[in-house]
UniProtKB/TrEMBL annotation:
Source organism phylogeny: Bacteria, Pseudomonadati, Pseudomonadota, Gammaproteobacteria, Alteromonadales
Name of the molecule in the record: Transposase
Organism: Colwellia marinimaniae
Gene name of the encoded protein: tnpA_2
Integrase catalytic domain segment(s): 134-300
Amino acid sequence: MILDSVRIQAVELINEAVASGAARFRACAELEISVRTYQRWIVDGTIKTDGRPSAQRPEPKNKLSEVERGNLLAVFNSDEFKSLPPSQIVPALADRGVYIASESTCYRVLHEKKLQNSRGRSQIKERKSPTTHCATGPNQVWCWDITWLPGPVKGLHFYLYLILDIFSRKIVGWEIHDDESAENASTLIRKTHLKESVRNNPLVLHSDNGSPMKGSSMLETLYSLGVASSFSRPRVSNDNAYAESIFKTCKYRPDYPYKGFLTIDEARDWVLKFSHWYNFNHKHSGIKYVTPNQRHSGLADKVLANRKEVYQRAKERNPERWSGDIRNWDLPEEVYLNPEREMDASYHTADIW
């Protein structure tokens, strides 16, 4: 709706342009209005004001009274109908010889009272926020999961158990078994815990909600080792995004035998080579393209400092090729598992790849 002051100013500008010799349709086009609109604004040579904002409009004759609205809400919020939509309630009332209002009117009244959706037991429960953990160094937060590796025939799989350090992205432990079980997971976590020498350091182990992750033997092992357990929200796969990411990296390797491993020993040999490549040769995009082992062992800072010098020298040799500072090679001091948005607004899921 165009305000009267704007309308008056527009008409005056058009009239001034026409008086100066401009065509009326061109003057109107400059103000992005049509000639017909300009003509509607002029009545007997004067500018017509817009009375719509202050116009007194009669109430519709078919409008529900306050008593009728109250009765409608009382019926719809009763124990019998509070979990049903109007499309179910209106016919049910008609079968009893009762008519309150049309379905569309019922929907409109419920919408005005914010009762149209999710009433009664169907109300949407408050969603639980993902568990957030922060790692400022290696061996503080681990995540783990199990994935299938194809076997020699369709329907036969081997199971890769893998533990990843989220700070360094290093594979700190893995095993392959014929089945999924909490006992196998317990054995792996004990071996990895001993190998990484984290006996006296606080450690969080994050996983999804599978039975091997929540089995009694696994939970007892974590308790005896002093490891705090953390779990994803039910049916939310990206709460364990680091583990899902490395599984994709694994299965998209050029030499991955997508037709299947003939034996479990063959699968173990392949994963052994993959884990060595991933830890010692793979320049990880999530950690400024240093290897996970360099980040885990504390060598990454030296590597990145050298890169900064190389870039700085290149800029000094050809300053005209640089429009700003050199590339940022600084690693974040904190790595979050499922960071809260207000904690780190610049975080992107892609950073984990």
